[in-house]
Amino acid sequence: MSNPLVHAFFVGRAFAEAVGEQVENAVTNALSELGKFDAEQRERLRQFTEEVLQRASYAEQMTMQGRSSGSTNAATSTDLQAMIDDLRAETAQLRAELQRYRNRS
After folding, report:
1. Where are the alpha helices (DSSP H) in the chain?
2. What pLDDT was estimated at residue 20?
3. Which of 28, 34, 44, 53 is 20 to 30 Å from the Cα of 18, by its Cα?
4. Where do the coiled-coil regions begin and end (predicted)?
């Protein structure tokens, strides 16, 4: 016959080992899932970045094609001058409107 204290010691030791293994498995699984999640997010970010760069490149190419195919430097210069003139006119209108507002106050 064995001593009940010795038996209790071995039961406690076996219990502690089993709980330790369960905790180890849980932590290992959690870290594994975290690693998978991190890798998936990095891949999604890489794909997103690649897509954005492709779109930007496509838009740049289309813009350059439009400029080179249908316009000359003189036309571009005229267009720029017209745009500048329009912006100056809008600025003058805004200044006048602002002045009217200030005078009312």
Report:
1. 4-70, 73-104
2. 96
3. 34
4. 77-104
The pTM score is 0.47
Cβ of 58: how many Cβ atoms within 10 Å? 10
Structural domain span for residue 66: 1-70
Q: Residue 69 has what pLDDT?
A: 60
pLDDT tens profile 2-45: 799 999 999 999 999 999 999 999 999 999 999 999 999 999 99
From 66, 86, 61, select the one nearest 76 (Cα to Cα). 66
Residue type, 69: S
Q: State which amino acid sits at residue 44.
A: R
Those residues with Cβ within 8 angstroms of residue 79's Cβ, 6 or more apart along the chain or in another chain = 71
Q: Are residues 39 and 12 in the same domain?
A: yes
Q: How far apart are CA 99 and CA 87, in angstroms?
A: 18
Q: What is the pLDDT of residue 65?
A: 82
Note whether 43 and 80 are same-domain residues. no
Do residues 67 and 76 touch, judged by C-beta distance below 8 A?
A: yes
